[in-house]
Specification:
The complex is a heterodimer of chains A (468) and B (361). Chain A contains 13 helices and 25 strands. By secondary structure, chain A is α/β, with parallel strands linked by helices. Chain A has 2 domains: 399 residues, no CATH class; 55 residues, no CATH class. In chain B, 15% of the residues lie in helices and 47% in strands. By secondary structure, chain B is an alpha/beta fold. In chain B, helix 4 runs antiparallel to helix 5. Chain B contains 5 helices and 19 strands. In chain B, the strands form 3 sheets. In chain B, strands 3, 4, 6, 8, 10, 12, 14, 16 and 18 form a 9-stranded parallel sheet that branches. Chain B has an 8-stranded parallel sheet with strand order 5-7-9-11-13-15-17-19, covered by helices on one side. A two-stranded antiparallel ribbon of chain B has the order 1-2. Chain B folds into 2 domains: 298 residues, no CATH class; 58 residues, no CATH class. The chains are: A alpha/beta (468), B alpha/beta (361). The interface between A and B is large, with 36 and 44 residues. Strand 25 of chain A pairs antiparallel with strand 19 of chain B.
């Protein structure tokens, strides 16, 4: 008898906690100018933001849905509530967070992680932040870590206006425009020149409301010579109706700065995850992406890096695990503009039990990017013949002074490896789970220990019941 | 009155971001009128047209080709008869396309290898210098159990010609399609090859070489579809880009459900020697079967510093070293043509376009 159902019921329940939507404000479902204006009113937006939202809505209405990715026919914006505000205000004390919401975050381990290993935490529940705090010693270094709304209206208003959706413009694609129209929540981070934040900051996004969308905006500026590790986590309970996540992440890595952005995405399997992430890296800067995609019904997720400055560099390390009912289209994009820039993408994808995993990438090397180097390595593992795994990379090279390499492999778990492990006393299921964990090692070794453990648990969970 | 039309061809089997401009190609301003019949030798036409006595030819219309269905539009506009060549035990034919100035010519060619036979067909496309026009060729191949078809295509057209080259192949059990293509000439070349490996243990061996310079455009689409079990495909492309040349390579290995035991490899090795070159490479693996092995690799850039240093120590400056590398890359492919006369012809054309003679190698 398969064990997976049992394990699913036990372990998934951590992510499947459903809180009652009591006294929360929920905007009517659908998308039109009156809804966008209502969101602006609820959030008390400055005038420029009100106009920006309406312009974005216009762009949204003009753009078509992508004709190249997984189908998103099941997503009907008429059924999505774009703004759901929990019945609480943001606080810097967990004790002031409503009991049910606090319990949810407790069970997800966020307050515990904050105490043990984080320099600051932002916790978003549906459309708004309910908790935001940063350690005193980090704040004393001049590090700003606050919610986007406070940044938009407070002392960083000019900085927000200067950078907000300048890297991901609303006309970039339909769901960037949607984000521009209805965004809410998210975090603003500024790390002053030369400051190294020794332990990571984390934002956790929780979508509780059924039939709702989450559109948080994350804006991070790491100034000259500074260093930051930012972790993003997300989850939602599973409902029988579609939920939507169309967040936006804009990262500005200044001269000789370094930013590591880690994500463990574990949305529920009714989620359409149409997220946009982009980084602009200046001279000598370093951008590192670590990305684990486990959840969602459909994902379109391709963090993009623009290596603008000379000698800037990026690394992308990612894993995607597509199981039953999932169509995860993930990968990365890089544009080399500066001289002697370098990029390295190293990804793994696993498909199982009818899941569809697609690795999609683009490497663009402009004429100006003399002596650029890029290497892409992607490996895919098929665990059965009900599943599907596609690899769709593209390279556009416009200078002779570049060194570009690409390799991809697709295959199955070798019988010899399983046999060897079984001869050492492991069951076939455990042997296969161990091989898959090893296959994902490139990502887990890049994560802080707690998150690597969580990722391995997710893999073990997915692998249970994979035999027979 | 409409005198010209556009054709959309070379569709990427699984599209990607539209802004990359690689999902398909558009051939603009194809003339609607004035298409001529096949510009090959008279004796070939006499021998192989009206050769419709085998029922098997009726099935050739179902063979999918690499450029897609819109090539039919050219077929409809052309008065041409099909050239149909079938093998006995072993057969080899050489087709020379002598393209004339100002002419647009289309050839519709079908090649058939019955069980355990072997057919080799060489196609050489040529035109006089300072001429222009369009040479369009559609070639469909069908190989029965244990049979082999070898197709060698050499594009040696003059620099103002447009070349449209559409190939489709179907292989039965243990059958082999061996395709070698060399693209040296022409101003614009659109080429697509789709091979359907229907039978178990059928094979595709594809080798492609190119040398593009000035403002030449080379737009390619290669697809190996593994339907049968234990099928094997190998696709190797490589070449040299200079000046303002623009090359787009699409290569797809497709493993649908049921293709267990299949193996596919594709590789592209590009030497870029021009400051204004555009090189686009899109190597896909599509997989719906667990028990398969697919690999692709690409290497793009200039010769490494180590190679340049070594050649400099032998007295070659960077320009000479790059020329030598370029010639060496394509000479290796020329030596696989398998016909001395054509090999010599290809090498002499190569010498002409590269400006680097054989003796220097």
């Amino acid at each position: 008898m398969k064990e997976r159902t049992y394990v699913d019921d036990v372990d998934r329940s951590v992510y499947d906690i459903k809180d009652e939507e009591k006294d929360a404000y929920r905007i009517k479902s659908g998308l039109d100018a009156s809804i966008v204006e209502k969101i602006s009113e609820e959030k008390n937006d400055p005038v420029w933001m009100q106009n920006f939202r309406l312009q974005s809505l216009q762009i949204y209405n003009e753009l078509k849905v992508p004709n190249w990715g997984p189908p998103i026919d099941g997503l009907n914006m008429d059924n999505i509530a774009t703004y759901v505000r929990p019945n609480t205000r943001m606080t810097a004390k967990w004790s002031e967070v409503p009991e049910d919401i606090k319990n949810t975050f407790e069970r997800l381990g966020i307050p515990q992680a904050e105490r043990k290993s984080l320099a600051g935490v932002g916790a978003q529940y549906d459309s708004e932040l309910v908790y935001h705090n940063v350690r005193e010693e980090v704040a004393a270094q001049g590090v700003v870590y606050t919610d986007m709304e406070s940044a938009l209206k407070g002392e960083y208003a000019d900085m927000v206006k200067k950078y907000f959706m300048k890297l991901v413009r609303p006309n970039d694609h339909k769901f960037a425009a949607l984000h521009g129209a209805v965004w809410s929540g998210g975090s603003f981070v500024y790390v002053p020149p030369g400051v190294s934040v020794e332990i990571p900051l984390q934002s956790y996004f929780r979508l509780n409301a059924p039939g709702a969308g989450q559109f948080e905006h994350t804006l991070i500026i790491v100034d000259e010579g500074a260093d930051l590790h930012f972790i993003e986590g997300c989850s939602a309970p599973k409902y029988n109706i579609a939920n939507l996540h169309a967040g936006c992440v804009e990262l500005f890595v200044k001269k000789n700065a370094r930013l590591r952005y880690s994500t463990i995405e574990n949305w529920s399997k009714n989620m359409y995850n149409l997220n946009t992430k982009r980084a602009l890296v200046e001279e000598g800067g370093t951008m590192e992406w670590v990305s684990g995609s486990f959840g969602s019904h459909v994902s379109y997720l391709y963090p993009m890096t623009i290596l603008k400055g000379d000698r800037s560099r990026m690394e992308f390390t990612g894993i995607t695990f597509a199981g039953k009912g999932q169509n995860l289209d993930t990968g990365a994009k890089v544009v080399h503009v500066g001289k002697e820039t370098s990029s390295f993408m190293n990804t793994r994808s696993i498909s199982k039990d009818g899941g569809i995993s697609t690795f999609r990438s683009s490497v663009v090397v402009n004429k100006t990017a003399e002596n650029a180097k890029s290497a892409v390595s992607c490996q895919s593992l098929m665990l059965d013949s009900k599943s599907r795994s596609d690899t769709i990379p593209a390279m556009d090279i416009r200078t002779p002074h570049a060194d570009i390499g690409h390799e991809a492999k697709i295959g199955r778990i070798s019988d010899e490896a399983v046999f060897y492990l079984m001869s050492r006393g492991l069951s076939e299921e455990d042997a296969r789970a161990m091989i898959v964990s090893g296959f994902a090692d490139n990502v887990s070794k890049e994560l802080p220990l707690e998150y690597a453990v969580e990722m391995n648990n997710l893999i073990q969970l997915e692998m249970k019941g994979s035999i027979g | 009155m409409v005198d010209n039309k556009d054709l959309t061809v070379n569709f990427l089997p699984s599209p990607t971001w539209n802004r990359l401009g690689v999902n398909q190609a558009k051939i603009q301003n194809i003339p609607v009128d004035g298409w001529n019949s096949v510009p090959v030798q008279k004796e070939i036409i006499e021998k192989y047209t009206n050769n419709s006595n085998l029922k098997i030819w009726n099935s050739f219309a179902n063979i999918q080709t690499g450029m897609g269905e819109e090539i039919d539009e050219i077929s409809k506009m052309s008065p041409t008869e099909k050239i149909r060549i079938s093998a006995d035990r072993t057969k080899s034919e050489k087709l020379f396309f002598d393209c004339k100035n100002g002419e647009n010519a289309f050839a519709d060619i079908e090649l058939y290898a019955p069980e355990n036979t072997e057919l080799t067909v060489f196609m050489t496309m040529k035109s006089d210098s300072n001429t222009s026009g369009t040479c369009a060729v559609r070639t469909r191949l069908k190989t029965e159990n244990g049979a082999k078809i070898r197709l060698v295509q050499l594009n040696l057209l003059s620099p103002n010609f447009q070349f449209i080259n559409d190939v489709g192949a179907e292989c039965a059990d243990n059958a082999t399609a061996e395709i070698l293509q060399l693209f040296i000439g022409g101003k614009e070349t659109y080429t697509g090859t789709k091979t359907t490996l229907l039978g178990k243990q059928s094979n595709l061996d594809l080798n492609v070489g190119y040398y593009c310079k000035d403002e030449q455009l080379l737009d390619m689409n290669y697809v190996a579809e593994h339907i049968g079990k234990k099928t094997v495909s190998s696709m190797n492309a490589g070449g040299v880009l200079r000046d303002k040349a623009h090359k787009l390579f699409r290569g797809t290995i497709d493993f649908p459900l049921g293709s267990s035991g299949a193996k596919g490899d594709e590789n592209e090795d590009v030497l870029i020697l021009g400051e204004d070159v555009i090189n686009q490479t899109v190597p896909l693996i599509l997989c719906a079967e667990e028990d398969v092995e697919g690999n692709h690799g690409a290497s793009i850039g200039r010769p490494s510093d180590d190679v340049l240093f070594y050649l400099a120590s032998r007295g070659l400056d960077e320009e000479e070293a790059c020329n030598l590398m370029a010639r060496a890359k394509l000479d290796a492919l020329c030596s696989k043509i398998g016909d001395e006369e054509l090999e010599t012809l290809a090498k002499s054309c190569l010498e002409e376009v590269t400006g680097y003679a054989n003796e220097k190698l």
